[in-house]
Amino acid sequence: MILLEEFQRVLQQSGGRLVGEGYYGVWAGYPYTAYVEKLRSPGEVSFDFRLEGPIQQPLFQELRRMLPKGCRLSAQAGFHYRILCKGRALQNCGESLAAILDAFTRDLSRARIVPPERCPLCRQGGCDAYADLDGYAAVHRDCVEVMTRNYRAQAEMKGRNGSYFTGYLGALLGGLLVSLLILGALALGLRAAWFGYSLLPVGAWFGYKLCRGRMNRGAVVCSGLVSVWYLMLMEQALFYIQVHLRYDIWPSVFATFLLYWETKRVGEFVSDLWIPVLCLVMGLWICWRQTGGYAGAERKTVNHIRATLCGRAS
User: Fold this and answer.
1) Which of 38, 117, 199, 229 is paired with 50 by a 20 to 30 Å CA distance?
2) How many CA atoms are closer than 13 Å to the CA of 84, on its beta-carbon side?
3) What is the C-alpha separation between 96 and 27, in angstroms, rounded?
4) Helical H segments across the chain, by residue range
5) Other C-beta atoms lying within 10 Å of the C-beta of residue 97
6) pLDDT digits (tens, 9 = 90+) for 54-64
7) For residue 212, what is the DSSP state?
8) Are 98 and 13 within 8 A, CB to CB?
9) Contact predicate 114/52, CB 8 Å
């Protein structure tokens, strides 16, 4: 027996279909999620079953003993059970995947251990479909459709709620706090404080979020503008401190501002700011991931559930 060929036959027999990295099907009334663990011959495959309740320890041990060499049954959290099958060992003993799944589901049925029959969304019976909601299990098609619509409505609402004005004020406060910390660290002679510039956009982003700014890509733009503003202000502050220490005077801020741009050459400007600018870019990338990461993960999860939705045979 070639395991991966047998695996394909099992999928065809049980109506299995590929969604993402998993194969979803139903064997003898038991929904499963299957994975190819090792693609190269002889290969390894696994089948995950979600059950209504736990398999009692005596039966669990018996099921483990009844599996042929090369197969291992393991218990996962939330009444999930996995059968891992190794191709080389199964080749030697001549067992087929179909026979293994038949014996496993038959023993579960005799022990009256069944898959969940209540929809995990509404907790009611009479399910008419299957979907991957913490394991492939019975659901109501309408419940999944409503969940999808609700997610889309919530995503649109999040994009409309909030205020750019209050968010910008929050970004200014967050950036100011981080800027003062960076200046304090530089004043103490900590050269590694330059890398604190990567926290400047993050501080501005969190300030924007705490002050109920509109959480879309505008949050990243606002954080970037605030970060560049504080970067230039800190550069002026450091130059002011240098003038004070060198000449032992307290010049006007306007005078040092003009002096800065009159004395700084392009090469000196680039040499002074390339590390802070690089750190700012790193911080902005973190903000970009923060803004889109959670929404992207939720969207991916909902889309995955929707993709695994399949009608249930009556």
Assistant:
1) 38
2) 8
3) 14
4) 3-13, 57-66, 87-93, 97-110, 141-160, 164-187, 199-210, 217-247, 253-263, 266-308
5) 25
6) 999 999 999 99
7) T
8) yes
9) yes
